[in-house]
Design a protein that fits this description.
Elements: H1 2-22, H2 25-57
Amino acid sequence: MGGNLIYYAIVFLIVAIVAAALGFGGVAGTAISGAHLLLMVAVVFIVVGLLASVLRRGV
């Protein structure tokens, strides 16, 4: 699940860069906020998954 979120975060980042280059500041700000949110959620999912796998092994 984390991989898909990172993919969409990169897509939002590219949209933000293109929008900023074309002068659409509001769209760029919204897209970068979405990218940031998706990236943070992906990081949380990855950390929780790693912790769960470590605890399941009993290490």
